[in-house]
## 1
Amino acid sequence: MATSNKLQQLLDQKAKIEEQLQIETDKRFIQVGKIARQANILHWDNKTLANAFKFLADQGSEEFKSK
Amino acid sequence: MAEKPTNKIKTLKKKLTQIDARISDAKNLARHKESKRKRSLGRILIMAGATNFYNVDDKPFNFIMSLGGLFYILDFQDFKLSVILGSCHSVISEIKNHQELQSELVKKSKSYYQDYLIRKAVSQKSRTNKNTELEQPLFLLLGVLLKAKSLLIDDGSIDKYNQLGDNIFIQHKIKQQQKYQEYLKQKNKEI
């Protein structure tokens, strides 16, 4: 019985953290959106945006590796 | 200064990984406890006289857990072991030599098991059950448990069955000690 209570507690904790994570991720999406607006790239189509982000992500990881 | 959202996300993801590991540990522990409980319940059923209806000698060692699993079908697993032993023993003694009572119990348990499968399928939604079939002789034992549970709930005389179970435990212990003494004697003779 005690084990199942503990498991339930952990599952509740996990649900709370997931909720917090969702809130923080949403905040981050808004920030990224604002940066995209400032950079005047909001009118780009999704495919171009995805390519640009991929290029930046690859470059970022290369720089990270070289450091 | 408030934590940056990027850092917060990293921290939360880390926490999530940690909590997942703890959940996995807790699940393993619960599974281990359940297996232990099933084994004890299986032994109790054998001690109560299940071997009158079902030969378990030719079954694999872990089969005893399947017998314990029958208690979980009825949600009958949380009673004290001596109470379970007492009630099962009195049901088995009652039906041991009565074919009619046995057929009646098999009929009841089959119907209960069908309902149980439906309930389980509904609660698990689309998840399919790999092993839903019970071996025929197990239906009689399931019937025994059904009757034993109803004895405890309807009769309300838990103390009576507790006492009976304790006595059987004591008798069993004495028998085990005698067996051990005989084994020691045999061993000494051989030396």
Note: The mean pLDDT of chain A is 90.
## 2
Amino acid sequence: MRRFDFFLRETLQAFRRNGFVVFAAISTAFIALFLLGGAVLVQREVNLIAQSVEANVEVSVFLSDDISTSQTQNLNQMLTNMPQVATVHYQSKEAAYEEFKRLFHDQTTLVQNVTPDALPASFQVQLKDPNEFTAIAQQLQGQPGIANIRDNAHIYDRLLAVTRIFRIGVLGVAFVMLIASAALIANTVRMAVFARRREIGIMRLVGATNGTIRTPFLMEAVVEGLIGAAAALLALVIMKVAFIDPLRNNIAFVPLVGSNDLLVAAIWIFLIAVVVSVAGGFFATRRYMDV
Amino acid sequence: MIKLDRVSKVYKDSVVALDGVNVDIQKGEFVFVVGPSGSGKSTLIRLLIREEEPTQGEIFVAGKNIASLSPWKVPYLRRNVGTVFQDFKLLPDKTVYENVAFALDVIGKPKHVIKSRVPEILDLVGLGDKLQHYPDELSGGEQQRVSIARAFVNRPLILLADEPTGNLDPATSVDIMKLLDRINRTGTTVVMATHDNAIVDAMRRRVIELTGGKIVRDQERGVYGYGA
């Protein structure tokens, strides 16, 4: 294997020679990898939200205002005895009002217009498995004193559906961009091969192996890919610091992607960058390698 | 050292370049391959370094059947066969020293080997004082010496020369032939394709004459041609 400084010199020379084309290849790789990293982070965020939803799925059994004490006790007993139920918590009208005031503390007009009497009492039921909601609802159907049964999972269903579409879209665009960047990297390598066709001819003549001939070109491709990857990672870090981290203090109830998620994205970015650039470089040099 | 057994080469456009050629060249021989343009001389050279594969027949170089050589072994064949061409094929942006060193560098020879062998071989070809010159600062004869040095620096068993004097004036050609003769006397087998009848006549070595892809004459201590 030849000396590393030789390969490095050849690579730098190629960059000088085809500056603009190399720039185009690197920026396409950058955009593709940035989108890829973004998609990875969105995926992680969706998982985080899904996990917190799973942990927090609650069935609210709202009670009618005219429910009697015995009916309430009866319902409580029934819920507690259900095998699918983890915990049952009774929320009185007063407690519901307190909760309401806490949630909307910054909207004073809203709070002023709602009297404690307007909010129903309820059982807050935690399920062992959030998918058991339908079974619970069916069993409670027709019991006296129940005004309404709701689970809060469907709120998140919409959110998950939207993010899934967003994720597929971003991944799709990233995929197309990755192919484009492989093609552009292949193009810069092809130009480098063309500029050095004389050397390649002599190398083949004196018995250099395909590996020796090919390595500088593959290295050029990988360096281009890695520069794009580094730029993409930098952009993601900036995005995180500028947009996600400030949110952390404002919205406490939604979990946010953190540094370890960024690390996972970085691993993906660099892995894909190497794969894409090696593929591009390999493709571009294949034609010149047949002996 | 070199053996061709009923070798034919037909190109895609059904041009027959070689047609059932049998050749046997011993170690240390000096052989001229002569014949008119298109008679198959260059094809013969290209077959010997597996630049091309024969359509039919077997080719043995240094004991190996190169017609059936797997592609990844081809570089190792070429390390045993030096090649020199009419157009020198030097790298213009490298010095004389670098051009020769390049041939060793790309086959992974260590630095200290390159440092000792390159000046030595350039001394042998008479360019010991022009190591740092660039090809365009040299005469044609000197450039061909560099190319011979590059072909020979790895001590190949065989040296192939395709019209090495084709671009040179007669006096310079004689110098190049003296150099090839010296290389031959170190035990290296030399095969030279040429048009140059004066040189062939003067050297009085084995002559293989090709016409239309067939061997029409194979003569020890021959001359260029009866009618030439």
Note: Chain A has ten helices and four strands.
## 3
Amino acid sequence: MLKIENLKVKSRDKEILKGIDLEIKEGEVQAVLGPNASGKSTLAQAIMGNPKYRVSGGKMLFEGKDISKLGMEKRAKLGLALSWQNPPAVKGLKMSQLLEKISKRKDLKIKETEALLNREVNLDFSGGEKKMSELLQIISLNPKLVIFDELDSGLDVKRIELASKLIKKEILGKNPKTAVLIITHSGSILNFLKPSIANVIVGGRIICRSNDYKKTFQDIKKYGYEKCKHCKLSSN
Amino acid sequence: MKSANTANFLQIDHRVEKINQPKGTIILPSPKAWEDFAWLRKIVKTKPKEGYFIWVKEQGDSPLASCVTIASRKVNQQLTNILVVEKNIQARANVLCNAKEKNLEGSHKAKGVLIIKQGASLEYTHIHKWGLKDFVNPDYEFFLEKDSKLIYNYQNLLPPKKLDLVNAVHCQENASANINLVVNGLNSKVSIKEDLLLEGKDSQAVLKLRLVGKKKSNIEARSRVVASAPSKGHLDCQGLLVDKDSRIVLSPEIVCENRLAQITHEASIGRISEEELNYLMMRGLSENEAIDLIVGGFLTI
């Protein structure tokens, strides 16, 4: 569904992604793990076409089409969606108004997010509310591929479980072909969504790709990310 | 106001098309009221040419609605609008002034006198929708007697070519005024002069001003609070400059003539946040759709 080849991305003339290769198939759940400032969010924003991040090399193909030069709204219309790590507030704009504009699911009702509808988008939201706001918007878009950027950061276990349940029910349950890319630093969400592949990104490069996310995560917890460079799992 | 059909007063060009008086309220064309009421002649010195007179004498259930429209080419309206709310009455009024089409080249000048008597309150929502070549000059004076309240919401999302908006609000003892002015400049020259005059002890006034400069607009807003009694006043003026060819000037002015008064102001002019724009565009909205949502949000008070 999404194929990234040798992607290089710069921000303010500094190269952040230094040649990323990544392929996500239909219905696949993959994870990207990495330390702070390793390029995780840059990868997410670059896939979505944020002009702040300039692609200086490589290719991004979505359903066979080169999207490297497409605008953000066109990528969204093709079915790509990103749940932001730190979404901005849009003062004066109510969640319900935004959903009315963007939602492809007009009948959408999610009990856990109802209290947000009458509030201004992300304004004075708690960390947990921001994540639920993102999730609600993503669900409403009915995407083909979703990137969750640190959905689990700042959430307690119960909230992570709730968010995971919603992803399973409202995204994967509605369309099992939807692909999901989970970007996480803490890894807390992985046990709920059980990715089939875990990628480790360090210094703007994916240095490990494993089909045993549990083992990968355990090793990271034990040895830290630097050890990943020499880990045997990376050959899996 | 849902439509002109529900209006209590409807004027098209220079013709009064409809007057519908609810119980306890007198509604007349202002020239007729001027002839009928001697007290009015003391307040309005010269005989009005046209406009509405609304005198709320008894408590009503529904908001009053007034509509003044320009429907023909090159009409020059010179209105005098008067609204009086009697003691201890709580009134609401929705007023629409508009041009029916975009290119009528009309002129709408309106002198307004609004009197809110002791203990009364008025929520006055004033919507303007104009054509691309109209000239509009509302010049309103509000008199708030002791213990009265005013909420004045002025919204102009479809501005004329030139808008001169002038308001003066006089607050007597313990009167309070909340003034919310919203103007979306679209290829317009806009001048706003707002005076909040805190004349009575414990009076209060807050002005919120939201201005958007878009499509070669030139907006100048001078807002002033003058405290001559122990009172409180605040100015909150914000501008949003959407394109590089527009200009906004905000001049908040606070004048304190009483050492027990407390008056404050804040003013800022910003641009569309790139992060907000990217965020909305990643939801599948075009740049223009995203800007419209951000601007709409900014103009929501």
Note: Residues 208 and 231 of chain A are 8 Å apart (CA to CA).
## 4
Amino acid sequence: MNVTRQEDGQFELRMEEEEWRSLCHLLSQYPLTPADHHSLNSKNNPDPGLKESDQWLRDSVSKHQTDRELQIKQWIQSIEPVDNDEGHLYPVLFDAERADWLIEILNDLRVGSWMSLNCPAPETLSDKSPDSEEWPRIWIMEVSGMYQSILLQALDIALEVGHGGIS
Amino acid sequence: MPTVDPTTDQKTQEDVDPGYLVICWDDPVNLMDYVTHVFQKVFGWERSKADKHMLEVHENGKSMLVRESMEMAEHYVHQLHRYNLHATMERSE
């Protein structure tokens, strides 16, 4: 996988076929964070007046996830492979807005998989001997974090050189 | 008819309605750079201010981000939750 900056300020994530399939598989898991986990009310100091607002927040997050799910499908379909001598390559172009979109989706996957592992301290994950159910969740958590880091780093570079900064 | 002394009776909007605090809480899973990025996006902050609040969350377990009207506080909390940050709002004392 290779990230390069284009002259128009966009970034290109050039992926081998296997890497692209792996990213598609990852994104197809969205959403993993349950909407009913969200609450705007403090656990220590709950405000009864915010009970209705809590339900509104959950409905809003749920709608947001449904919209994102559809957008992910459309986005995956929009990426066309290019051929080279070794097979298909998938050039994924993104600007700051698209990067933000993808980073947010990846974070849902990271947080959701972490929750499904019972919220372990990340540094303790390497001490674990995961079972067959835990392995895929750890994979999602770690790979999502890796892509997030790549995209956040690209956004930092975009800001430094004055292209496509955070709006 | 009683007279009102403007020097003693003028209350600021804050005195009348102290509003709501928007608080972001620490969790061990969100990447530090991600939290900074979200603060910049949601509040339009400069990197340095977003970093300061991210470090507060990381080191103190929480950071008070803004004090706003109920409507605006709800708006910000919704935005933060869409990014999967753990944010709450509570009435300012």
Note: The helical segments of chain B are 6-9, 13-16, 32-43, 47-60, 70-82.
